Structures are given as C-alpha cells and as structure tokens.
Amino acid sequence: MKYTKLGKSDLTVSRICMGCMGFGDAANGQHTWTVDEERSRSIIKRGLELGVNFFDTAIAYQSGTSEQYLGRALWDFAPKRDEVVVATKFLPRTTDEIEKGVTGQEHIERSLNRSLANLGLDYVDLYIYHMWDYNTPIHDVMDGLNNVVKAGKARYIGISNCFPAQLAEANELAEKEGFAKFISVQSHYNLIFREEGREMIPYCQKEQIALTPYSPLAGGRLSKHPDETSKRLAEDSYAKLKYDAAAQQDSGIIRRVDELAKAHGVSMTEIALAWLLAKGTVPVVGTTKISHIEGAAKAAELRLSEYEMTYLEELYTPHELVGVMAQNTKAAANDKHVWSAGKQEI
Hints:
alpha/beta
C-alpha cells in the first residue's frame, strides 16, 4: 500500500480509503444490500492487513449501524488508535430540529456525540459536512465545526456534495473568523461521471484541498462486465437513479475499462481506480466482499500510460447532475454564489 498526506493536514492516509456504506443492518436503513457485522469485520480486518488505514462512514449509513460495526472492528483489529484515520459525516438539521429551535452549532455537537458513541471513540480524525444545509447559515455551520475541533472531538473537517463557490465561501469565512477550514472534499467523481473536473477539481488542486471521490466504481458499473450482476446492482435504487439514464452514453467507456483490464491481466476495478489514483485523488472504495478490498489495494500498484489515460477519457460526454447535487441545484437556484459550469478539460 502507498500513503499520502491528506491535503494540508498532518494525516497520513492510505491511497485507498475503505468506504463503509456497504456495512450495516440491511433491515435498518436506506439500503437492502448491506452486509452484516460478521462479514463487515472480515472485510475491515483484511483491509488493515493490506495496509488500508483510512476508513469513511456516516451517521446516516443504516441508522448508525455502519459506524457501530466499524468502531467495534477497529477496536479489535487495529494495532493502535493513532495508526488509523477515521472519518464520519453529519446531515443537515431536520425539520423537527429547526421547529424546536436547535441551532446549527447544537446540531453538529449532538450529531458528533452520537457518532462517537456509535464508533466507541473519543474523537474522529475527519468530520465531514455530508451535504449543504440551505436552512442553516454557513457561519453557524463553520462555528459549530470549529467548536468540535477546539474540543478535541474532531482533528480536521471536510465537506461533501457542494459547489466550488460554496466551498470557497466557507473557507474564506473560516479564514476571516479564525475557524477550522475544510481540508478535503468528497465528491461524486469517476470515469463515467466527471463533472467535478470542470471547476471543483482545479479549485481544490489550487488550494491544496484533498480530493476523496465517492462512488469511484459507479456503484459497480466500472467493475463488472456487461453480463455480470450483483445484489447491489439489482437492488441499489439510488445508484440506478444516478447512472441508468446515462447507461448508453457510458457503455463505450465501460467497454474500454474491460479492454484495458484484459490487456493488463487485471480486474476492471484496478483499471478504474488506477485512473482515479493517477488524478491525485484518494478514492473512497465501497466494499461488501473481501475480494473488493483486495482488488482496490492492487490498484495502488498499477500505473497507466498517458495513452491509456487518454483512451479511457476521450469518449466522455457531459452529464446532468444527479443524486444529491441535482437536489442542490434546485435548492440553490436563487443562490448568487453558485458558479456556472466552466470550460476546463475534464
């Protein structure tokens, strides 16, 4: 395994981050395809053996059971607390919280306290703003995050699912107020969805903000031959929402991933992740089988040529924003800070 510093922080992380959305009680949350605690533990243990030290979860994943599974496994299998980097995320305030007058600062502290209890930890290394809260002033969010950093409950903060202008606004405010700044961005980015390459990635590279893309394998679409399937492919309605509409325009890219995998004698997973790694990112790779994390770890050793990188990229065509970012587009329709799409090559 290879390692890198996460942005400007002093966190040393494996180039592969284990995404834990696939862990948790399948009867207690959004997804029906997640794996139970016994299987989760075996995957986490294998990841640690392979040198993975970066783990990403969220309080929203299967009602907190993903955090619980991860915390107990790390307690049993990780050599030392300071040898693993644990990230979790919080959601915006609920309607009920808003009606009861719960402030943004109070919500963040309560959310993190619940996550720490689930994880069985005194602190997390990275606390991530899961999606933009249009009902809470950004000052309240940044103040609340700064409070948990000052309290020693989070070492650093990150953000996910936002526009570049929102990230810039938040970090400029933090700079002005002396608050902790976002050191990483977790965005939707892979070979068949590259819209973040227009503005977010150039901005983060300029500001030395770490890129930790989620859905690096497009919900399994970049890791399986066209005739292959899986429980997740069959049951993940959210991934279907994100990818099915563009399946025809993406098919040529997926075929090229398959072609290069055969040429190198490796899996499609390794090719798709090697492309992301060559972009300087730390992909958050979801796993529901030991073979998944083993394939991801191998990708850290694979180098693609300049020709192969271009070959994988050249069929890409612009995509509509999907998932959370499509919702953000509607919510931010009247937000003067949202930038229009740029012209950069992606």
